[in-house]
Amino acid sequence: MRHVKVDLTTATHVGRVIQGVRQKVSTGSPASIGERVGSRVDGARMFLAASKARLWSPDPKSSLDTWADEQGEAAYLDLEERYARHPNALLRGDMADLLNHSLKIWPPKRFPTLYQPIPPDLRNPIHWDGKVLGGQEVPTTARRHLSPEVYSAAVSAASKNARILTKWIRTVLLVPGVGLALLYAATVFSAGVGFPKWAAAAGFYGPVFGWYLSLIIDTAVLGGLAAGLALLASRLAFRPFVLFGTNRILERFFDRVQAPLLLPCRDSKLVYAQKETQRDEEYLAYTRQVRAANDERRPLTRVLLPVARARGTLRSRGIMQAPVRDAQMCLDGESIRQHVLILGGTGSGKTRLVIRPLSSRIMTADWGSDRRIGAYITDGKGTLWKDLLFVPGVADRTDIRVVGAGFYDVRRPDGSVARVATYGCNLVQGMEPSEIGDMFEAIYSQLGGRSDKETFWVRNAAVAMQHGASIAKFVANCEDESLRDYFEDDLKTSPYTLLGIAQIVYDCNGPDSLLNRCVDFALAKSRMNPETVPAGLNDALDWVKNSWMVMAVETRSSVLANIGTVIQKLTGSPKLAKAFCQYTLQPNDVVDVDHALNGGILMIAVGEDEFGIAGKIITCCLKTRLYIKAKRRLQVEGREAREQVSVAMIADEFQLLATTGAESDETFWNTARETGVFAVVATQSIAALNARIGESATNNLMDLFRSKIVLATEEKLTQEYCQRLAGNVLLGWKTEDKFFETIHEREKLYPDVGYDRIETSSLDGLVPTKLALQIKFVADIIPQDNRFVDQYSTGEKGQDVNARVNAMKEAWNRFVDRNQSQLTNGLKEVPALHAAELNRGSGIGFVYLQRAGGVRLDVVDFEGV
Description:
The chain has 31 helices and 19 strands. The protein is α/β, with parallel strands linked by helices. Among the domains are: about 1-150, no CATH class; about 160-260, no CATH class; about 340-415 and about 595-705, Rossmann fold (3-Layer(aba) Sandwich); about 425-590, no CATH class. An 11-stranded mixed beta sheet has the order 5-4-19-18-14-6-13-12-7-11-8. Strands 1-16 form a two-stranded antiparallel sheet. Helix 7 (about 150-190) runs antiparallel to helix 9, helix 14 runs antiparallel to helix 15 (about 450-475) and helix 15 packs across helix 19 (about 535-550). It is elongated and about 175 Å long.
């Protein structure tokens, strides 16, 4: 068997048919209409529709090879010319008729995705549940591999083979013919037939010479006739040899490319009929997803953010929302606003494999000329900002502000060290007293428990901070500076700061206490100018008089103890207190979270690693302040603000930041999309969130963070949650090595990618062969066994015909029973995602991504992007 290498780079395209149909169907560039049209019509139409064929060979060509190539190209051109005016539209290759033929088989209303451009990351095969869209069997797609290159290569190989065969025919006919002529001459010569002896005896040499000349001429004529007949026979045999050889080569090639498609799969034989309604809904959702991705009114669906590369695992198990192997898994600019949650155990690579590359893609994406993207980067440890400071898209920004206390040395990618200055922030500046109370309650949810008893004390502490803030705000804004100077000179803080408010609430014993001095000051000023009394001040004064001061000492002490849980941690860290709680920094050394909301990059360099619990308090306060500011922007500027500036809140170790209560993660992310803030947050596991904020709040967050990216994790709750997202599939036992659950499982071992060689045999062309290119039936799981039938033969004396019939019945029944048993053997619904697949590590994980209004999910390779 000889092999001819063929360039099949266009084997899955259909040349001018694709281009013509694309022009007629869409002004865009449809992704796969060529395959859809070309895989259902006969091979001849595909030859006519494609471009000029070329044979490729890596070895230097002989003169015979060059001649054979020319024969192949000439044959294809002749075929085009011959059928150019054929009455059959498919053979003629008329574009309009080809399109009409396609429209009859796959109406656009029923199968719109066959006639639309499809983004590469959304492109699905035309097989659904084991069959081609419309219910055709998969082997019908095999003819698309019969490209012009294959046809020309087959003709070329057959021509070369025919040339060799005719050469041997000439030799075979010529040698016996010439041999017979020489044998004739030898016989005549030896027998002396007709030899003029009389002339020889008489010495007349003329007749003798004539006899010899006649013998030579007769021998030459006989030899020439033999050579002519040999040449004529070879000439006459050449075209049939080429025809039969081409047919045989194409049949062999077609059988080869069709062979993988004939292997039996459970989905086409059983599942397809069971999922009729579900399949219609899945395909309808897919068509709407493609339509959304192409919608000009939704430009953000074309802002693609690659996350990982699909392994094709879930599609091979029958999940149609999953992509094929090696497809990119992407978020888009619209779906990322529905928030992203990254899960993975310690050391699984959350930062390296997901947060860093995804952050870079967010910041470098083309969001449009009228949109800006800001970032708020934080984490529970206070170290994420160092990982993201020099990533592409961030490193070249001039609007980066690092919030912290002091200076930090950060190593650049080139090994040099950059010294980074930080900015402080007044945690309560610009906030309403009620918002300060809500912030305090949210912070405490990260520090304390969540029992009903503890919640009671925390809420009372939050109320105390709220009313203390109302009084502090009035003192800070009053024109009389006497009391304000006392704060700044003696207490080393401003009234309307976190420490100033806490000092007012704390110092409440005795008539000369700071609280009483502030209350007396506020009462005196409010009586002088009642119209200037701010909202909430009277409520605060009433609360001090009627609730706080008359409260039992033990009760008040418990409330103050809860306030002290937060405040004493801050006062124990002078650097943090100065930067965030006292408002003693210069204006140039201060930045607010508004910086991110205005399109800048704000990085939080405070966390537990350096500052312990105090660092966590500051980080949570800043995050809560961002939430409050974002909501306020929505109220003041409306939805137009989010269209102009979006903010990516990128957070690691989110379990150390998540809070509950008012103005917390429990409430903010319900409406965050309206504010223009979206989350890309990472945490170790669902159990870690449960331990911090409770099961109810965790479940709420899991629902709000629509896209999930999961790296290696052993945590059971996380694994079960991912399995629930992936859904269930029908799987059973298999005892046959060439029986598969789905065609996509079969594709992994026997891919439908055509064949890049033309196989030829020395005998190709000798045996008459008809070109049928017949589509075969999908093979049975277990072939019929007729071994016990063949022992009975009909028509012979003494044989029992009834016995043969009975044996045939038994063989048939056994054949049917065994195949049905294979289809249903151990069949049951099982999770599509195995728990072991969530613990492979080495960059392998699971994603469940929102994309253009739909979902894409699969086991993925994060290092393959």
